[in-house]
Specification:
The protein has 162 residues and is of the alpha/beta class. It is 40% helix and 19% strand. A 5-stranded parallel beta sheet has the order 2-1-3-4-5, with helices on both faces. The longest helix is centred in the middle third of the chain and has 14 residues.
Length: 162
């Protein structure tokens, strides 16, 4: 089964997981990049990112090319913002809803606080699916690496390879 990992990463945690998953699962990656970057410093980062997530905004993305016929499964990776998934995923899904039909889905969330399960549930609802084949929530996987977190990422890869 060929997998596409579609992710948005601001601070590198989500990309860190995507890169590790790519090493262990037959997959390609697609990093979503908004045309207008989010502020990534201080209070403005939380205010504007949270507002954008809560308001269900759909930012314009840098161009990308995907041949969806090559992939059986899509894995979505995202940081949790204000208890939900990040707006670039919302844009990607809306722009490609027809091409995503009939695919299998998994997801992972990266966060420093809480809300990962809720965010994954909101993503499933937005995709109009009952749930994901595999999910995982990682707490600061890049910035606070340890053996337990690496084992958790490996466990997610095992689940994807089943």
């Amino acid at each position: 089964m060929k997998t596409l990992i579609v992710y948005y990463s601001m601070e590198g945690n989500t990309q860190f997981v995507a890169d590790l998953v790519k090493e262990k699962v037959d997959s390609d990656t697609l990093r979503l990049i908004p045309k207008k970057a989010y502020n990534d410093k201080g209070f403005a980062k939380f205010f504007w990112g949270g507002k954008s997530a809560l308001m269900a905004e759909k930012p314009e993305l840098e161009e990308y090319t995907v041949d969806f016929s090559k992939y059986d499964r899509i894995v979505f990776g995202f940081p949790v913002w204000a208890g939900t998934f990040t707006p670039p995923l919302r844009t990607f899904i809306e722009d490609n809803r027809k091409s995503l039909a009939g695919k299998r889905f998994s997801a992972y969330a990266c966060m420093a606080g809480s809300g990962g399960e809720k965010a994954i549930g909101k993503l499933a609802k937005f995709l109009e699916i009952p749930g994901f084949e595999a999910t995982s929530i990682f707490i600061d996987p890049k910035t606070a690496q340890n053996a337990e977190k690496m084992a958790q990422i490996n466990g997610f890869c095992v689940a994807l390879n089943q």
